[in-house]
Each structure stands twice: as structure tokens, then as C-alpha cells.
Design brief:
The protein has 44 residues and is mostly beta strands. Helix content is 9%, strand content 39%. The structure holds zinc ion (ZN). Pfam families: SR1P.
């Protein structure tokens, strides 16, 4: 099965991993705004 790691701040898919069942993990991506929330918003 497949698990996916999403950024909990911007929702970007960071990586996929093999898991026993479909699972969503939340982490943070490499963007500064996500590593340090409150510093500013993504400018897109
Ligand atoms: Zn992010």
C-alpha cells in the first residue's frame, strides 16, 4: 500500500512511503514559511 507525507502547512506532497495501509502523514516541507510558520505567507 501507499502512504503519503503532506506538508501540514501548505499541503504539498513531500514524499510517498510503503505502508501496511493507506495513510497520510503530516510533516513540514523545506520551504522557510513552513519551517517557521508565522514568518510570512507563501507568495503564490
Ligand atoms: Zn509546506
Amino acid at each position: 500500500m501507499l502512504g503519503v507525507i503532506l506538508c501540514k502547512y501548505c499541503g504539498s506532497e513531500i514524499a510517498t512511503v510503503d505502508t501496511e495501509k493507506v495513510t497520510i502523514f503530516y510533516s513540514d516541507c523545506k520551504r522557510e514559511v513552513c519551517r517557521e510558520p508565522g514568518k510570512g505567507r507563501v507568495d503564490e
